[in-house]
Design brief:
Elements: E1 20-23, E2 26-31, E3 36-41
Antiparallel strand pairs: 1-2, 2-3
């Protein structure tokens, strides 16, 4: 994630299939089929505005 005026920083990391990670209210799940990484948050706030990257 990269918040305005800041450098990029790691939000979540998942390397195993069906592994769940959470940070700052975000939850992510890595799925092998289809090859996907889902990022979710139950409720968002103005302070969540940022660029989100997946690598």
């Amino acid at each position: 994630v990269q918040y305005p005026g800041e450098g990029p920083q790691l939000l979540l990391k998942a390397t195993r299939v069906n592994e769940n990670g959470s940070s700052k209210g975000f939850v992510a799940t890595y799925q092998k089929q289809p090859n996907a990484f889902h990022l979710e948050k139950a409720s968002v706030h103005q302070s969540d505005s940022a660029m989100y990257y997946c690598a």
